[in-house]
Specification:
By secondary structure, this protein is α+β, with helices and mostly antiparallel strands. It folds into 2 domains: about 100 residues, Sandwich (Immunoglobulin-like), CATH 2.60.40.10; about 110 residues, Sandwich (Immunoglobulin-like), CATH 2.60.40. Strand 8 and strand 9 form a beta hairpin. It starts with a helix and ends with a helix.
């Protein structure tokens, strides 16, 4: 009756023995990489993965993997528009470098470095993040509405409208589009009153909730609309431009 018990005990001991060997085998090869890299929008970023071992070993596979795709492989230097791979070999260790070009929000995420060698297997991860992308902004105002546009910004935000200390945000209409780079294009419109428009100052600001700060601020300048007598076309002229044309005409006459 004790025979089956003895067999089970033997199997458990064998399993534990192989588990210990596997753990020791994995510890022979070590990987070193920065756990987190915070990049500036549009800059180049280098991710370096260093392999070392307490014993002599041969690297069979060393790679950078991200988004279900192998980007770099050991001893296979590779150059593409988005990234570049480079291998450095020294006496006691090897380094695989992944250079990300013009980093955008779409490039943020976890990058995994993997190694398989005669000294064992191991992996480590680097998380790439971007704090913010300021992009560019424009603003305008006429007798019917004021507009603000924020292009190429990150993270996403909301447009706040003020006239003096009065918050007009709830009266505005805002649309947001995310492009292929993970950047946001945000356009907001606010209906305004035409009477004494030149005395009314409207401010629009882009609030980023995740950063708890305003990323950009605009005061829409006045754009006068002059109706054309031909058809229903409307010609927009800046006040300063009108004055310049009048002066030129006076000089000619």
């Amino acid at each position: 009756m004790s025979f089956p018990f003895a067999m089970r005990t033997r199997r458990v001991l064998i399993f534990c023995l192989f588990s210990v060997i596997a753990i020791v085998d994995c510890l022979i090869v070590q990987l070193h990489a920065r756990p987190q890299v915070e990049a500036q929008c549009g800059e180049d970023v280098k991710l370096m993965c260093n392999v070392s071992s307490s014993q002599q070993m041969d690297v069979k596979v060393l790679s950078w993997v991200a988004f279900n795709r192998t980007l770099c492989e050991y001893e296979r230097n590779r150059t593409e528009k988005e990234f570049h791979c480079e291998t450095t070999k020294l006496k006691d260790d090897q380094t695989l470098t992944l250079k990300l070009n013009n980093v955008m929000p779409v490039n943020t995420g976890k990058y995994l470095c993997k190694v398989q060698s005669t000294g064992g297997v191991n992996s480590t991860a680097t998380m790439v993040t971007i704090q913010e992308c300021k992009g560019r902004s424009t603003a305008s105002k006429n007798i019917s509405h004021a507009e603000c546009s924020f292009k190429g910004v990150y993270p996403s935000g909301s447009v706040h409208w003020f006239q003096g200390n009065t918050n007009l945000t709830n009266s505005s209409s805002t649309k947001e589009i995310k492009d292929q780079h993970g950047l946001y294009n945000i356009h907001s419109t606010l209906d305004v009153k035409g009477e004494h428009l030149h005395l009314q100052h409207y401010n629009c600001s882009l609030w980023i909730p995740s950063l708890r700060k305003y990323l950009s601020w605009q005061q829409p300048p006045l754009v006068e609309e002059v109706g054309s007598s031909v058809g229903s076309a409307t010609v927009r002229l800046q006040t300063g431009l009108c004055m310049m044309i009048v002066r030129v005409m006076q000089d000619v006459l």
